[in-house]
Write a structure and sequence with these properties.
single chain, alpha/beta, Aspartate Aminotransferase, domain 1, Aspartate Aminotransferase, domain 2, 2 domains, 4-stranded antiparallel β-sheet, 16 helices, binds pyridoxal-5'-phosphate
């Protein structure tokens, strides 16, 4: 029987898969979402099997289930299964991509003002170690990177790499990554997209983005377990033979005493050891998202976030910080007469949110003197009633 996505009947069924959604108002999906039942079961069953049957023996018995992780990724995000690598987090995926790039002193790398703090730190460290020049593209008036400025910098400085976070962590922006992909292709620059907050929230076709690397995690909008992520790489990356520092006996073969050969597919970005329980949980999360449909998920997440912004804007003393021509499911607000401890107060009231700190967003929040913001991130299983309840609670806390 087909159900209309997010009809009250469908929503009820989705929430029944996530019993914790009835015990709290979980608006911290940009931190870590609540995992649905099938994800929890996949992880727990596998661990139980390992406990009974041994780690290596269970991996051999469940080999085909484990391998299904790769085609499942390709079904949801496009491309071929051979273009995906299992990683332990988005940062792990990002750093492996970065470490695979050839560098020469004097090379230029280009990024934006909204890139994730860990990425910025890695870029700064790389530029210090290898003598690279790091450039940052300007923003448009309405917020978000200005593709014209990015193109100007591409022409003028010929960067070897462009790095963009598609959905920044600290504000509700969606960066125009497909448009930037075209610019990078035209300029012959490698293109690394941090899709950590985008995967599971936006309907994505990774080959169509024109990126060479796409790094993501499972615990956020994909609703998978913690400690799991993935890296997508373009055919161009595979053909060029890019491989991360350092390879191991899974990602490469030791062919003679003085020789090795990296694997031909994206598994060269993996290491031998990983949790197969998490891999199966991640595959279950992908199947769960697929069963709902990414276009419907994107529409609902954006609609709920827009409604939440509307409710919060109406509160005296509450300023919505999100700016940009396309907004995501992340809502960031600055609250008058409040401290970050409001997050704990809300948690005590059964409402889960998080704090975005200015020092994690040096180009934007810190530069504008915004030391922190309350971050709220609804997912499709949240309800309009939960949003209204949350806005009312914040309104009371600001006044008290
Ligand atoms: C935009 C963005 N990129 C990367 C990361 C890092 O993800 P992970 O903790 O899985 O490495 C985060 C985490 O919040 C994020 O929001």
């Amino acid at each position: 029987m087909s159900v209309h996505p997010f009809s009250s009947e469908h929503l009820q069924a989705l929430r029944a898969d996530t019993p914790a959604a009835e015990r709290s108002i979980h608006l911290n999906n940009a931190g870590a979402s609540l995992v649905p039942g099938p994800v929890q079961e996949a992880v727990q069953h596998y661990l139980a099997e390992e406990a009974q049957g041994g780690g290596y023996e269970t991996a051999a018995r469940r080999a085909s289930d484990i391998q299904a992780f790769y085609p499942q990724l390709a079904r949801l995000f496009g491309g071929m299964p051979s273009q995906y690598a299992y990683c332990s987090s988005a940062t792990d995926a990002f750093n492996k991509a970065l470490s695979s790039l050839p560098v020469r002193a004097g090379d230029t790398w280009l990024t934006t003002r909204h890139d994730y703090a860990s990425n910025q730190i890695a870029l700064l460290q790389a530029s210090e170690r290898f003598g690279l020049r790091l450039l940052v593209a300007r923003d448009r008036e309405e917020g978000g990177v200005d593709p014209d400025d990015l193109q100007r910098l591409l022409r003028l400085h010929k960067p070897r790499l462009v790095v963009v976070t598609q959905v920044p962590s600290h504000t509700g922006l969606v960066q125009p990554v497909a448009e930037i992909g075209q610019l990078c292709r035209a300029a012959g620059a490698w293109y690394l997209v941090d899709g950590c907050q985008a995967a599971g929230q936006l309907d994505l076709d990774l080959p169509a983005l024109g990126c060479d690397f796409f790094a993501a995690t499972f615990r956020k909008f994909l609703r998978g377990p913690r400690g799991a992520g993935f890296l997508y790489v373009s055919e161009r990356v595979l053909h060029a033979g890019l491989a991360p520092l350092y390879l191991d006996l899974h990602s490469a073969r030791w062919t003679a005493t003085d020789r090795f050969r990296a694997l031909g597919d994206a598994r060269r970005f993996e290491l031998w050891e990983r949790s197969y329980a998490l891999m199966l949980g991640a595959a279950a999360a992908l199947a769960y998202a697929e069963s709902i449909g990414m276009p419907a998920i994107e529409t609902r997440v954006k609609r709920l976030a827009a409604r939440l912004r509307e409710l919060l804007r109406a509160l005296p003393g509450c300023r919505v910080l999100d700016r940009g021509s396309e907004l995501s499911g992340i809502v960031a607000v600055q609250l008058e007469h409040s401290e970050p401890g409001i997050m704990d107060e809300l948690r005590t009231a059964g409402i889960h949110t998080s704090i975005a700190y200015g020092n994690y967003a040096q180009y934007t929040m810190a530069a504008q003197g915004v030391p922190w913001a309350l971050r709220l991130s609804p997912h499709y299983y949240n309800t309009e009633e939960e949003l209204a309840h949350t806005a009312a609670a914040i309104g009371r806390m600001i006044r008290s």
